[in-house]
Amino acid sequence: MGMLDNKVCVVSGGAGSVGLASASRFLQEGAKVMLLDLKAAELEEAKAKLRSDHVVTRVCDATDSGATRAAYEAAVAQWGSLDVVFSNAGNPGHIGTLDDYSEEAFERTLLIHGVGAFLACKHAPSFMKEGGSIIITSSVAGVRGGAGINIGYVAAKHAQIGVMKAAARAVAARGIRVNAICPGAIDNAFQTGIENRMTALSGIDVTEQLNQTIPLKRHAHADEVAGLVLFLASSMSSYVTGAVHMVDGGMMS
Ligand SMILES: NC(=O)c1ccc[n+]([C@@H]2O[C@H](COP(=O)([O-])OP(=O)(O)OC[C@H]3O[C@@H](n4cnc5c(N)ncnc54)[C@H](O)[C@@H]3O)[C@@H](O)[C@H]2O)c1
């Protein structure tokens, strides 16, 4: 028996590293999965990697309220329920010093992370029964100020924690749970891009520095983040809501 037998899971940022690793875990545990992302071709590539008949894909901008609601409706139309929403879409935003950070870059970053998480929490519960689970991907940047070179991302990741806490309170009486995960540095293209830009700004090898300072002495694999997502999606975490879950190799300890 799987941890998510016959559960219907919608994953935003589903063509990306953490989204795909989580979808793979969900499928292994018996779920049906809808992947959402910006580009059809990338969604098809992701679907091919999953090699399962229990996957559908849908182009959906996570900042679009109507499209987000329509995606949840489509999942229910396809499979009869909506049990898990993994609100995970995101981008690194602008990397730059405070005086170099434009208002436009700040707002754009808040939109994808903060508004994206808000829309998931606003729309998903109306399709969920008791036992539903919403999981938001925040970051270590959601609980600390960082290195001072990504103020939009830090603000947006903190905003997601606020969205999670308020939404968890709002839907708890209906038996729906809302949690946030906070990954540290993952060994993937998203993080490599950030680290390369930070290295260029500081002149310090940021990847090496992280590997020295992270207590577990390495970056995470996306699948290790997905393990926590699976736990929060499943009834193993039935009494866990409104909480911030670090998956950071001890970075914030
Ligand atoms: N990579 C890391 O080290 C790290 C650390 C902490 C938190 N995170 C967070 O994890 C989440 C997943 O990131 P990842 O590492 O898998 O990176 P990724 O780039 O592989 O995946 C992110 C996905 O989100 C999609 N996306 C971006 N904007 C979107 C939008 N408006 N609508 C729909 N989809 C959109 C992208 O197309 C991409 O497929 C992000 O929220 C990121 O902020 C990542």
From TrEMBL:
Gene3D superfamilies: NAD(P)-binding Rossmann-like Domain (3.40.50.720)
Keyword hit for Oxidoreductase: yes
Entry keywords, A to Z: Oxidoreductase
InterPro entries in the cross-refs: NAD(P)-bd_dom_sf, SDR_fam
UniProt superkingdom: Bacteria
GO MF: oxidoreductase activity
Pfam families: adh_short_C2 (PF13561)
Protein name: SDR family oxidoreductase
Record family assignment: Belongs to the short-chain dehydrogenases/reductases (SDR) family.
